[in-house]
Write a structure and sequence with these properties.
By secondary structure, the protein is α+β, with helices and mostly antiparallel strands. 29% of the residues lie in helices and 17% in strands. It has 5 helices and 7 strands, in the order E-H-H-E-H-E-E-E-E-H-H-E. The radius of gyration is 16 Å and the shape is globular.
């Protein structure tokens, strides 16, 4: 699928994150739009995968699974079954397939990072027991401030997933409308 052709769910997610990014209240959304990748949803593997972990602890669960598998830790936004874009964390394989210990969402947009980098920040900020992610300003004030201003360091990022189109430069295109007149409104 071309980078600028989105599924209906991906379109809804990128649009929702762009709306969040336009407010001063969500600096994490700006980082995700600037550095994020679209990843492919998939059901949890029936065999060979680690156990999912405790519900409601997506950051801890995703980091644990990413460290156990040859995967990456991803933090960003997921489009849930009810159509809402929610801050979330998951892990992904090298080919951009999502492994979400908290269940499967309809679409994923997030910044893929090396688990070693996330662990280093977690240890430095002493948030091992109450880890709520790198993009949470309340938990990692110093590191989150740096990330919100300069983005996730390039050495910490992993090249996984598809780069979404810039929602502020040109209209987004949904695969559902097949580039027809609905996109020109």
């Amino acid at each position: 699928m071309p980078a600028d052709l989105l599924t209906t769910d991906e379109y809804a997610l990128v649009t929702a994150v762009a709306t969040l990014a336009s407010t001063a209240l969500s600096p994490a959304a700006r980082v995700v739009l600037a550095q994020g990748r679209l990843l492919t949803p998939a059901p949890w593997p029936c065999s060979g995968a680690p156990r999912r972990g405790a519900p409601g602890r997506c950051h801890r669960n995703a980091l644990r699974v990413a460290r156990l598998l040859p995967g990456v830790y991803v933090e960003g936004y997921a489009l849930t079954a009810d159509g809402m874009a929610r801050a979330h964390a998951w892990c992904a394989t090298a080919d951009g397939i999502v492994l979400d210990p908290d269940g499967m969402a309809r679409a994923y947009l997030g910044v893929p990072m090396a688990p070693e980098f996330v662990c280093a920040v977690q240890q430095r900020t002493l948030t091992k027991t109450r880890f709520r992610g790198l993009l949470d300003v309340d938990v990692q004030a110093r590191d989150a401030g740096r990330i919100f201003q300069g983005g996730v360091p390039l050495y910490a990022m992993r090249d996984v997933g598809r780069i979404p189109p810039d929602p502020f430069q040109r209209p987004l295109t949904s695969a559902a409308c097949r580039l027809g007149p609905c996109c020109e409104r």
